[in-house]
Records
---
Amino acid sequence: MKTAAISTVLSLLALTSASPTRRTPGNVTICTEANYAGTCETISVPFNDCQQLAAPYFKNVGSFKVDAGAYCRITYTADTCTMHGDSFIFPDTNAPDLRHWDDPATGTIIDAGAGFTSFKCQMCTNCQDKKV
């Protein structure tokens, strides 16, 4: 009987810790519309691995958010992650509107979401989310 109770408690703890709203390093939120609207998904990704976007997000990202403790390099000018990415997304600024993005390479406002294909996140011990 004690074994069954312990198993139940452990199962509940696992479900609680797997909650998609939990804010942890390595979690990103991707949405099809600006300001974290439309179809959204919060996923936990491993650090230093290129993440290829699939439908409905492939070349269709309106906003992108990374949790404190990490930053991500997004790619919108190539089919997959590039060595340096096109832009860095930090948790204190995030990217609430990729449809009107200030492209660091050109200094112009572009629709980066229409080209967003992939991203890679890395641990950042100095990255703090000031909006939590």
---
Amino acid sequence: MLRVMALLLVVSTSFSGLAFAQSNGEGSISKSQAVKRVKKVENGRVLKVDQTGQIYRVKVLKKSGRVVSVDVDKRSGKVNPSQKKGSNER
């Protein structure tokens, strides 16, 4: 009986720690939250969302036909235009 109770205690502690880690997300935002933040800044249709390191890169098709990339920091949620070498776009 004591063994069973000890085993249940260990298992329940393990699962509660796992649930906390998943719900906490270490302060990061989800892909859908990143998309919502980008839609507030860029008017257009979201084509694709990529995860690279600590950012989400969201590609948006604008009404003009241009595709723009917007970076969203996973931790802070800050939205920035994507920086590419040799890009002189405004």
---
Amino acid sequence: MTTTTPPGLGPGPGLGPGSGIDQQREGAAAPRDAASIEELLATLPVLAAEARQADERLRERVALLKQRRATWAEIGSALDVTRQAAWERFAGRARRARL
């Protein structure tokens, strides 16, 4: 079977240093690269709070799924992890939510 790589996506001219792709990456990273250590550190509490909120919403959703009798295999598949990994991460809270 032969596959065709679209122009500009495979190895070859146009993907080396100074190519449009490298310039786009550099341009996208420029604002963070220009930030001082203090500015970057100041963003950490906000990011950590967002991560905690997202984790709590995820745990609530998994608890709801377990109340509705979803299997650990279904939950794991949706999260792209094994059923065992899903169970290890969420089983304690899901059990308490059912009680």
---
Amino acid sequence: RHQASLNYYVSIIIFKCDPCDEDYYSLEYGLFSGSTRTFVFIDNIQSWANARSYCRHHYTDLASVRNMTENQEIDDLVPPGIRVWIGLFRDSWKWTDGSKPSFTYWKTNEPTHGAENCVAANFGENAKWEDWTCDWKKEFVCNVGKHYYLKHWLLLVTIYKLHPNVNRAGCR
């Protein structure tokens, strides 16, 4: 008897949006702890808000980083020495998907207080995070996935690649 290996899972979220535009907030629920997301580096300099809009239009959203493994994946993806926008922002610090961060990787003396409400990962400083004013223009990283509009309903489909060490007991 052969048992197939599960290497990916799909997250599908449907919610009403009226009107449907790029200012929606999605919620993502992982099926397995330890799962990893796929990211894409965008070599296109934008403000944080324009980077978020770009990611939402072409992928899923600005990157949200849930653990050191994901931070390292982004570090491996981004050319050295630059700063890129990620999806964390100051509204009591949350990700663009509305979730609170369970992992942070702040540079020493960050975050600062004041008008620096958006976060960039600094790849000249070991991918440590810094807060910046949101109108600065930087490259950015998106979570890979697709969203589809179905006449006043938004269907968000995200495919996650599982880390090889994830315990898949009970997953059939």
